[in-house]
Amino acid sequence: MANATVSMSEELYQLLETLEKPEVRHSLQRLLEKLPNVEQTIDSAENVVDFGKVVLTDEKTLNRYEQFVSTYNVGSETITAIVQLMEKLPKLVQIIHQLENIVDFVTAVLQDKQTTDYTMNNLKSYADPYVEKGKTGLDFLKMVQQRAEEKPQHINVFSIVKWMKDPSVQKSLNYVQSALDILKEKN
Description:
Blueprint: H1 2-20, H2 22-57, H3 59-70, H4 76-111, H5 113-150, H6 157-164, H7 167-186
């Protein structure tokens, strides 16, 4: 019993030494000042727990919640899909930011008259030769159509044989024969 008394005195002495430290006194003082707030927080937590208990025991509320949940197809597949979607959100956000930057750039370019004029002039310089070739081809077809309608000719075997000697017809027939040979090889 004497050892227990000595041990208790040592513990009391150590406790007093700890309480004499300025940082411990300061901490204890702050804790005592905050006790009303701590008590208020505990009361609020108790109120929330009490509210939760009442809600969980209220059959009407539980039926409404069950009805609400049952109207949606919320199964394990849906929850898995939601989790996967949430995992991909950072990447989707990056893609959306990139798309926004692209849209902003295109909008700025389209609103800049000097840039659009420059782009249109460059496109026109590339397209003009093809447009001219197309016009030339259309003019040629119109001339052929006009001549065929103005001077209908009687065509016979001798006319075709005569055409066969023409170098331009020979060249065209050579292209046709080459195309037929290539098609035959592919099949």
